[in-house]
């Protein structure tokens, strides 16, 4: 082929589009996007409405500047949840980006375009490695159910404390009649209280006491019904989509739901069981300097998942002979109770990961 033929051939070939990285600073009403080249050069910054149409406009705008395969998004579980789901549906890897640290903001300043550019550079440099949850399956439904349940439990506890505080200052005759009742009977009795018909200042206080007790008891019963319904829905969801989690000793529906929420609807985003352990805050962190080589406890991670693993371990210590034997053996080796529990939580995290994550996607050992 002659030089002229080569030049003619190359001029007709389609241009190769370079890959760019998208960064987004999310807010309730508007998202600010920035596109960064592989060398860190800013290709453009633009604002888009936080709507379905705005998501489409944002991606079209970004793709005009290159091929978009990766995106860093702030707040993928809050303001950026809708955008993250849209980008994942378009086969784009979405990474959760934390806000820039204070030292960087003191040096560079604070603005939405700067935050969007920092999000893109965090993905480009590899600092942002946490893949975003897809939030489009049964685990997202479980997350919503658990959110409603947790708020109902908190409100019911508050109402119970308030009802018992009213009983402390109630009329002695009423207090003595109700003080011997258990909680369930106490709430049922208070829900049927009717204020006396007589008038007077003392009777007005009695009327207010009876009315307050009745309203608080009715609120407690209503919240209890909601909690029971949500517990049933969560149990059915786990039994339908992850029944294997309920087979090992010590893992109940509540702990299973909490750990599923931590993993998300796309557990393949976690590269290994070690990454899941770090996500749950049960992986040791290197803390060495000079001749000293040691590790410290991980105080980060999802604390609710950490608490679920804690419940699993203590249940197994009471009921699982294998766990009890392990505890005795490590005690004889000189390990403290706290150290043994940390090891057991790490093993429990590994077991949960291997039960939930698809075997075909697990890395080879």
Automatic annotation (TrEMBL):
Residues 213-240 form a coiled coil. Keywords: Coiled coil. Pfam families: DEDD_Tnp_IS110, Transposase_20. Residues 22-168 form the Transposase IS110-like N-terminal domain. GO terms for biological process: DNA transposition. Residues 247-328 form the Transposase IS116/IS110/IS902 C-terminal domain. One of its GO terms (molecular function) is transposase activity. Signal peptide: none annotated. It comes from the Bacteria. This is Transposase.
């Amino acid at each position: 082929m002659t030089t002229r033929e080569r030049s003619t051939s190359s001029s007709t070939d389609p241009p190769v589009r370079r890959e760019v990285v998208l960064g987004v600073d999310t807010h309730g009403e508007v998202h600010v996007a920035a596109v960064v080249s592989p060398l860190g050069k800013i290709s453009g910054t633009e604002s888009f409405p936080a709507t379905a149409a705005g998501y489409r406009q944002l991606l079209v705008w970004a793709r005009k500047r290159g091929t978009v395969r990766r995106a860093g998004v702030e707040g993928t579980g809050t303001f950026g949840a809708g955008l993250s789901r849209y980008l994942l549906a378009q086969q784009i890897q979405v990474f959760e980006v934390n806000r820039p640290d204070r030292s960087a903001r003191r040096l560079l300043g604070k603005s939405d375009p700067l935050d969007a550019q920092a999000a893109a550079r965090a993905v480009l440099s590899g600092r942002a490695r946490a893949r975003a949850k897809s939030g489009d399956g049964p685990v997202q439904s479980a997350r919503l159910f658990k959110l409603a349940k947790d708020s109902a439990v908190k409100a019911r506890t508050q109402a119970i404390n308030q009802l018992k505080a009213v009983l402390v200052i109630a009329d002695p005759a009423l207090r003595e009649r109700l003080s011997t009742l258990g909680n369930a009977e106490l709430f049922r009795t208070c829900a049927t209280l009717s204020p006396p018909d007589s008038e007077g200042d003392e009777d007005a206080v009695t009327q207010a006491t009876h009315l307050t007790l009745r309203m608080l008891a009715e609120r407690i019963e209503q919240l209890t019904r909601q909690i029971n319904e949500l517990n049933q829905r969560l149990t059915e969801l786990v039994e339908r989509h992850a029944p294997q989690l309920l087979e090992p000793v010590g893992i109940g529906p509540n702990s299973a739901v909490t750990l599923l929420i931590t993993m998300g609807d796309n557990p393949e985003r976690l590269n290994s069981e070690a990454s899941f352990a770090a996500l749950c805050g049960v992986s040791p962190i290197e803390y060495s300097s000079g001749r000293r080589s040691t590790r410290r406890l991980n105080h980060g991670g999802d604390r609710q998942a950490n608490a679920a693993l804690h419940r699993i371990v203590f249940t197994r210590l009471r009921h699982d002979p294998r766990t009890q034997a392990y505890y005795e053996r490590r005690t004889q080796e000189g390990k403290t109770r706290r150290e043994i529990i940390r090891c057991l939580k790490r093993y429990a995290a590994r077991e949960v990961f291997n039960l939930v994550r698809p075997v075909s996607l697990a890395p080879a050992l």
